[in-house]
Amino acid sequence: MSRKIHVDAVLVQAVIAGALSFAHLHDLAAAAGQTGWKAWAYPISVDLLLVAVWRRLRTERSTLAWFWFLIALVASLGANIATAGLLDLDHVPAWLRILVAGWPALAFLGGTLLAHQPAALTAELAPEPVSRPAPVVDLDRPEPSAPAPEITIPEPTPALPEAAPAPVVPPALVDHARKIAADHRSRTGSEIDTATLRARLGVPESLAGAIVAQLA
Question: Using an 8 Å Cβ cutoff, are 14 and 47 in contact?
Answer without folding.
Answer: no
